[in-house]
Write a structure and sequence with these properties.
Distance between the termini: 4 Å
Organism: Dicentrarchus labrax
Largest sheet: 7 strands, mixed
InterPro entries: Band3_cytoplasmic_dom (IPR013769), HCO3_transpt-like_TM_dom (IPR011531), HCO3_transpt_euk (IPR003020), Na/HCO3_transpt (IPR003024), PTrfase/Anion_transptr (IPR016152)
Family: Belongs to the anion exchanger (TC 2.A.31) family.
Helix content: 40-55%
Oligomer: single chain
Keywords: Cell membrane, Ion transport, Membrane, Sodium, Sodium transport, Transmembrane, Transmembrane helix, Transport
GO molecular function, one term: solute:inorganic anion antiporter activity
Radius of gyration: 37 Å
Strand order of the largest sheet: 5-8-9-7-1-2-6
Strand content: 5-15%
Number of helices: 38
Shape: elongated
Length: about 950
């Protein structure tokens, strides 16, 4: 918006405000723009604007390619309509063609030419005349303006010109829509083509009124609904109807309860145009700030979006129909799944997930080695992770899912090994047949479209499962660090003044006891040799490990603690977590340019790991480090890389293994599909579709392959998959000043997953580098992954409500529609279910963990008996069959109410008259050469 001002005795148009989405004003000092803020308009200015549009000239689809031509057409129309006297043509044209001075960045030190500008302008007639010359091409300052980065692509400008002149006795008003957007040189601050102009010139004495009218039309032009009307309007009446529609939504703030000087911060989220269209009738306007006292009608009540999982889970009724549809759905995207991964953000995602995967592989590999007597160990875990993960990311239906070993599988392996050992059964052969049966059972589930059952899995089950996995990650990370107190104990009674009293020596034991021999038994030659070697040792020079190895005794007050290591481990652990969280939030800070903040946020985990690895190396403390196998060979020397299916167990075990395989299949199915539902949820805005049946097919294939090779079984890892999604989220690069970056979706591709698992396989050759990474740093990454996966979970937000007084609780939508006690009851049910799952997974009953996940679905079904469908719609999702029933009940309720309404004669005039509106559907679009997005107006 430009206002007419006197500068050095001459007239010029000076930029005073601008709108991209929110209003920015030139501050009183004139040297800077204000912070973007919500435009606060006076109701009177909107009515005056309506009057201006009723009485002024309206030029729609004007053919104009230069500002002088457009000005001539405007003045001609005013004269033709009898609004302006013909003798004022030259004066009006002279004023409208004055030079435009924009609020561009100026140097700190003003030049001498700038200082003397005001005094020299009046005395220099050539400069005075040059102010009337408006170039048709953008100036150098316009092209270099950094503000252009904030303008959305294909945006068009709406220019508002407001001024006072002494030759008019009544306002000169004109609204112009050009047939084709045209760049009008220096009229705009940035080289954006102009589509609309609003001109208001009037007599002196009403500056504030004119400015408020200008602010009103500028605010309307950036409103999505009104700009749509402005583009499609056929005549004056359509524009006025658009203003009336805007007035229908206006909310008045009482002057005694609000300070107009306060600039309202832009909201984090604004309602979409489609949502606003749906609530434009007066009956629903009361829902804008929430209904008072719950008096809103049941049929008009705003409801959340229904529970939908898409066509991927549609029951086809054909043999392998769902699998075939998954393949057809994914093939067109396969090439883009590769080249979409070529982005700098992918580098951060690969390094982050890679470190998480190798830490997981080492942890589960070590636990598997202990549980199976090293039939499966760290080496098998590394190779299995690399093989299964790579195959799944290349051929799977949802390559964003990360495969990994899970706790329930570990428990099953432990119980299976103990059963085999106690009954004289070959463990690897029995495990092979269980894997083959489970593979066939997975194929059966795939060809029968059994994944259809997932549509009955609502947010109640998803949140319970994901919360449990998140808490497992958090607790395991903390348990690992608490273990540091055991291996590196701290001397709590240490007194620096008595440091001279602290010492630790290795004392030689009795020779026979050192060998663990029976004194009465005769000594063998080997024992005699070792006995003589022990007598030659200098026990005072042995290390702690050597002293313990040879049976020596550690004597001294400082033998029971290790200085510095426990404390340093906790510093690395919490430091990595805290720094990662801080750098992730750095994107939303006010320091440094936006691109730098985004880059730091994307690489936050890598930066944190490098910083604390450097700190550990600088202090040179012997903290526990990452140990990676250096040779490709089985952990157990008496087994090979291929398991033979016959020869070691009775033949009937090949058939009987079907029963334990059924339990494994349930475990695999539930883990895989719940994780897939969480990854594919609509909040992630995935566009390439998913493949529940195709995913389960490849998991089954990998079950058979890993069983033949004696490798661990793999299934979707919920927390690591969520972390993968978070590391690939995309936001809008150019956002209007004051507008929060819009979440665009996830960078869907296969490249990051493939690289992660290829690097996992190559980790054996990277062992010399990886051995410098402290384990506490990786545990800090585990802690971050667990905590980060809890964000955005409604269950977690509802737990925090227990600790908040009602007046301090956030304005969640479900709190507006569901009584607080019902919210707490629903949350309590989820907490109890989570506690039961936690207890089960901590005992030998963890093997029935997948069955308990099915139990969550049963509990959710029973909640229909306790909670109304209305409450469940807000706190959870309505089950598919209940959703249909609820719609039928609502239709019936509406019919009943309509039949009752004619019988009531009370307050016949209580209903408000229908507002004057312009229906969006009734407007026929005007043919325009280039149709830009409606939200991208940039009024000057």
């Amino acid at each position: 918006m430009d206002t007419l001002q006197h500068e050095g005795g001459e007239l010029e148009w000076k930029e005073s405000a601008r709108w991209v989405k929110f209003e920015e004003k030139v501050e009183e000092g004139g040297e800077r723009w204000s912070k973007p803020h919500v435009s606060t308009l006076t109701l009177h200015s909107l009515f005056e604007l309506r009057t201006c549009l009723q009485t002024g000239s309206i030029l729609l689809d004007l053919e104009g390619y230069s500002l002088p031509q457009i000005v001539d057409d405007i003045v001609d129309r005013q004269i033709a309509d009898g609004l302006v006297a013909p003798d004022l043509r030259e004066k009006i044209s002279f004023v409208l063609l004055r030079k435009h001075r924009h609020q561009t960045k100026k140097p700190i030190h003003r030049s001498l030419a700038d200082i003397g500008k005001s005094s020299n302008t009046a005395s220099n007639p050539s400069q005075s005349r040059s102010m009337n010359d408006i170039s048709d091409t953008p100036s150098t300052d316009q092209l270099k303006n950094k503000f252009m980065k904030k303008i959305p692509r294909d945006a068009e400008a709406s220019n508002v010109l407001i001024g006072e002149v002494d030759f008019l006795d009544k306002p000169f008003v004109s609204f112009v829509r050009l047939a084709q957007a045209t760049t009008l040189g220096g009229l705009t601050e940035v080289p954006v083509p102009t589509r609309f102009l609003f001109i208001l010139l009037g007599p002196h004495g009403k500056t504030k009124s004119y400015n408020e009218i200008g602010r009103a039309i500028a605010t309307l032009m950036v409103d999505e609904l009104f700009s749509d009307v402005a583009y499609k309007a056929r005549d004056r009446d359509d524009l006025i109807a658009g203003v009336d529609e805007f007035l229908d939504e206006v909310i008045v703030l009482p002057p005694g309860e609000w300070d107009p000087k306060i600039r309202i911060e832009p909201p984090k989220k604004v309602p979409s145009a489609d949502m606003r269209k749906s609530v434009l009738n007066l009956n629903e306007l009361g829902q804008m700030n929430g209904s008072a006292g719950g008096a809103a009608g049941g049929e008009d009540e705003e409801l959340p979006a229904p529970h939908e999982l898409g066509e991927e889970l549609k029951f086809t009724g054909r043999f392998g129909g769902g699998l075939w549809l998954d393949i057809k759905r994914k093939i067109p995207w396969y090439c883009s799944d590769i080249y979409d991964g070529f982005h700098i953000q992918s580098i951060s995602a690969v390094l982050f997930i890679y470190l998480g995967c190798i830490t997981n592989a080492i942890t589960f590999g070590g636990l598997l080695g202990d549980a199976t007597d090293n039939y499966q160990g760290v080496m098998e875990s590394f190779l299995g992770t690399a093989l299964a993960g790579t195959v799944f990311c290349v051929f799977g239906g949802q390559p964003l899912i990360i495969l990994s070993s899970t706790g329930p599988i570990l428990i099953f392996e432990k119980l299976l090994y103990e059963f085999s050992k106690n009954n004289g059964i070959d463990y690897m052969e029995l495990r092979l047949w269980i894997g083959l049966h489970s593979c066939l059972q997975c194929f059966l589930l795939v060809v029968t479209d059994a994944s259809y059952i997932i549509k009955y899995m609502t947010r109640f089950t998803e949140e319970g499962f994901s919360s449990l996995i998140s808490f497992i990650f958090i607790s395991d990370a903390i348990k690992k660090m608490i273990g540091a107190w055991k291996y590196y104990p701290i001397n709590r009674g240490f007194k620096p003044d008595y440091i001279t009293a602290y010492k630790c020596e290795c004392i030689a034991p009795d020779q026979a006891s050192a060998l663990g021999l029976n004194v009465s038994a005769p000594l063998s030659d080997d024992n005699m040799t070792l006995l003589f070697n022990l007598t030659d040792l200098d026990w005072s020079q042995l290390s702690k490990k050597e002293c313990v190895k040879y049976g020596g005794a550690l004597v001294g007050s400082s033998c029971k603690y290790v200085p510095d290591l426990a404390l340093m481990s906790f510093i690395l652990f919490f430091g990595t977590y805290s720094m990662t969280v801080s750098l992730k939030k750095f994107k939303f800070s006010r320091y440094f340019p936006t691109k730098l903040r985004s880059l730091v946020s994307d690489f936050s985990i890598i930066i944190s790991i490098l910083v604390f690895c450097g700190l550990d190396g600088l202090l040179e403390l012997d903290t526990p480090k990452l140990h990676v196998p250096t040779e490709i060979k089985p952990t157990r020397s008496d087994r090979g890389w291929l398991v033979m299916p016959f020869g070691k167990n009775p033949w009937w075990w090949y058939v009987a293994s079907f029963v334990p395989a059924l339990l494994v299949t349930i475990l695999i199915f539930m883990d895989q599909q719940i994780s897939a539902v969480i990854v594919n949820r609509k909040e992630n805005k995935l566009k390439k579709g998913c493949g529940y049946h195709l995913d389960l097919f490849w998991v089954g294939v990998l079950m058979a392959v890993c069983s033949f090779m004696g490798l661990p079984w793999y299934v979707a890892a919920t927390v690591i998959s969520i972390a993968h999604i978070d590391s690939l989220k995309m936001e809008s690069e150019s956002s209007a000043p004051g507008e929060q970056p819009q979440f665009l979706g996830v960078r869907e591709q296969r490249l990051t997953g493939i690289l992660v698992f290829v690097l996992t396989g190559l980790s054996i050759f990277l062992a010399p580098i990886l051995q410098y990474i402290p384990m506490p740093v990786l545990y800090g990454v585990f802690l971050y992954m667990g905590v980060a996966s809890l964000s955005g979970i409604q269950f977690w937000e509802r737990i925090k409500l227990y600790l908040m007084p009602p007046k301090h609780q956030p304005d969640f939508s479900f709190l507006r529609h569901v009584p607080l006690r019902r919210v707490h009851l629903f949350t309590l049910v989820q907490i109890v279910c989570l506690a039961v799952l936690w207890i089960l997974k901590s005992t030998f009953l963890a093997i029935i963990f997948p069955v308990m996940i099915l139990g969550l679905m049963v509990v959710r079904k029973l909640l229909d008996l306790i909670f109304s469908q209305h409450d469940l719609a807000w706190l959870d999702d309505i089950l598919p069959d209940k959703d249909k029933k609820k719609k039928e009940d609502e239709k019936k309720k509406k019919k009943d109410k309509k039949s009752v309404e004619p019988e009531s004669d009370e307050e016949p005039n209580s209903s408000a008259p229908p507002p004057v509106k312009i229906a969006m559907e009734a407007l026929e679009p005007v043919p325009v050469p280039v149709k830009p997005p409606t939200q991208n107006q940039t009024p000057e």
